Amino acid sequence: MQPKDCFLKTKILGVSYDNIDGNAAVQRFLALMESSGKSNIFFLNADCLWKSRKDKEYRDILNQASLLLPDGVGLRLATRIFGSRMRDNCNGTDLSPVLMKIAAKKGYKIYFLGGRNGIADQAAENMRRRIPGIKITGSYSGYFDSDKDVIERINTSGAEILFVAMGVPLQEKWISHNREWLEPRVCLGVGALLDYLSGQIPRAPLWMRQLWIEWIWRILVDPKRMVKRYLIDGFGFIVFVIWRRIMGKV
């Protein structure tokens, strides 16, 4: 039986996410793996919401996800502005290794797709060292010309779980457009996960993550991209959310 809070939804700017904690997210993942259908797990942060504002296709894909999990302080603040509370930070970078450990115990096969040349391969090698018994049956770069060839690689590998790291909204759209042919039971859109697992990008210290200030670390590591994302777009996002709240619109 699935936990009751697996079905707790919170709607912001036209997107409804699963407002659950990490334990419930794990239970939901297990239920999806044991079901007979195909499922998609995506993550929602402030940047995703900001992009979905003017991208109906992306917004619809998020709303159709089997599981849409909350990620980051921006979404937490937006949820509070709309009078609710985000129960947990179920970001993909922290949750994915937990799911991989469970997959190893259950014997599920995994495939990594994304990143520049060599990133997915290095991430796979690192996780094989970190998680005894993990079955990563294939890995491939996120830069390719033929969807058909990549899908064939994934399906031939026998993977039951596919981690796609292409950034938003590309990864969600790629999964959605190709889901009919992709055979893994669960596909996840995981952003920069493989960059972290490969060691290409250093992760913020634990204390910063616990204080919900990992965004500061990301700005320090990659100021060229992250200043715009967290300071310029982030400020615009919060102002927009406050305005929507004042206008009484969700």
Structure characterization notes:
The protein is α/β, with parallel strands linked by helices. The chain has one domain (4-198). It has helices at residues 22-34, 46-52, 56-63, 73-81, 92-106, 119-130, 147-156, 170-178, 193-198, 206-210, 214-221, 223-246, and strands spanning 9-12, 15-18, 39-44, 67-70, 109-114, 135-140, 161-165, 186-189. A six-stranded parallel sheet has the order 4-3-8-7-5-6, sandwiched between helices. The protein has a two-stranded antiparallel ribbon with strand order 1-2. The chain starts with 8 loop residues before the first strand and ends with a helix.
Annotation keywords:
single chain; 250 residues; alpha/beta; 6-stranded parallel sheet; two-stranded antiparallel sheet; 8 strands; 16% strand
Q: Could you give a short description of this structure?
A:
The chain has 250 residues and is of the alpha/beta class. The chain is 50% helix and 16% strand.
Write the layout of secondary structure elements.
Blueprint: E1 9-12, E2 15-18, H1 22-34, E3 39-44, H2 46-52, H3 56-63, E4 67-70, H4 73-81, H5 92-106, E5 109-114, H6 119-130, E6 135-140, H7 147-156, E7 161-165, H8 170-178, E8 186-189, H9 193-198, H10 206-210, H11 214-221, H12 223-246
Parallel strand pairs: 3-4, 3-8, 5-6, 5-7, 7-8
Antiparallel strand pairs: 1-2
Straight-line distance between termini: 32 Å
Question: What is the tally of beta strands?
Answer: 8
Provide the succession of SSEs.
EEHEHHEHHEHEHEHEHHHH
Helix content: 40-55%
The structure class reads: alpha/beta
Unreliable residue stretches:
none
Radius of gyration: 18 Å
Which strand order does the major sheet show? 4-3-8-7-5-6
Shape estimate? globular
| Whole-number tally of structural domains | 1
Enzyme class: transferase
EC number: 2.4.1.187
Keywords: Glycosyltransferase, Transferase
GO molecular function, one term: N-acetylglucosaminyldiphosphoundecaprenol N-acetyl-beta-D-mannosaminyltransferase activity
